[in-house]
Amino acid sequence: MKPTMGDRLFITANAGILSIIGLVTLFPLYYVFVVSFTDPQEYIDRGFVLFPQAWSTLSYQYIFSTKAFVNAIGVSGILATAGTAVSLLLTSSFAYTLSRKRLKGRRILMLLVLLTTLFQAGIIPDYLLVKELGMINSIWSLIIPVMTSGWFVLLMKGFYDSIPDALQEAATIDGCNEIGVWMRIILPLSIPSMVAFGLFFAVGYWNTFFNAMLYINDYTKWPLQMLLRNMIVDSSTSMGGSMALGNDLQLPSETIKMAAVVVATVPILMVYPFLQKHFAKGAMIGSVKE
């Protein structure tokens, strides 16, 4: 059908509004990137820079020469890798267990999972539990309390419910036990959903800072986001102030912060393009049942 004048006006207005929203969304990212590469002297002289005349990597050289920043990247990397693996293992195994219709006490377990999505203990009971378990200043304090959630378990259970029972019955007839069915049949079929949930978990662990603020008192065990939070909130903390680079040149704290933000953001942005196909597919799996 030939578009009418009203259709063309709607398309034009829609494109204009979305373009404005896109520019507003991208501008902070652009500004952070530009300031991080701006020459320190130019930033000191101009203050607000959108199109720098001189580019520099001094801010990146400084943060990567700082032991605290490099150590924080390592902690975040270990946290995202180990935490994602543990969360995927726990969530997938628990969701598969709940999807087994012959499981005794299945309804009670489902009720308990649903209750966790409605009620939470709170910060103080969580802290006391972590303290009693002896996990203060341990990386496990950033993993075990948030290994999974009832919402993720229910979503993955919906995917397992969409798998035909005939596949599981055929594997059982061939001699597989429940663990064998899960590992040899279910897991290979659930790669898209595992990738999607793995991305959720990885982003959550990489961006964690609140639990680190509660449970980690040793600054050498801070994850990257915790260090970045302290740099932004308090300029007097480690790596927050202006640093002398010789020849009376001071490295502004703002360029250091922006460089740290870029370094903290890039790893996740690099992961998305490679997982986008599986992510889009896995996010929809189990949402509609035939």
Automatic annotation (TrEMBL):
Ranges where the ABC transmembrane type-1 domain occurs: 73-275
Pfam families found in the cross-reference section: BPD_transp_1
Family designation: Belongs to the binding-protein-dependent transport system permease family.
Gene3D superfamilies xref list: MetI-like (1.10.3720.10)
Membrane topology, from the record: Multi-pass membrane protein
InterPro entries assigned to the protein according to its UniProt record, in alphabetical order: MetI-like, MetI-like_sf
Record carries keyword Ubl conjugation: no
Entry annotated with the keyword Transport: yes
Main subcellular localisation: membrane
Localization in the cell: Cell membrane
Residues that span the membrane, as ranges: 9-33, 68-96, 108-127, 139-160, 181-206, 256-275
Matches recorded under CDD domains: TM_PBP2 (cd06261)
Keywords: Cell membrane, Membrane, Transmembrane, Transmembrane helix, Transport
Designated name of the protein: Carbohydrate ABC transporter permease
